[in-house]
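re: ur question from earlier - yeah i can do the single chain one, its not a big deal. heres the input i used so u can compare w yours
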Amino acid sequence: MATTIQIEEETKELISTFGSKKDSYDDIVRRMYRMAVKEQLREFLFSSEKAIPIDKAIKRAKEKWQK
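and the output i got, formated as tokens:
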């Protein structure tokens, strides 16, 4: 089922630059959505917030998992 959304003409033109003549706006928006999800995941995984250097992480793991 299709719906109608209102966007500015300039926005429509910008969105169309992400596709080719064979792509529908639905194709383009879905592709942009998938790219945005991947970017959010990349930012989450590679965030430096709460990150520690690998040598410190190894030291902590050895201390925690002593035999």
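The longest helix spans residues 25-45. not sure if urs matches, ping me
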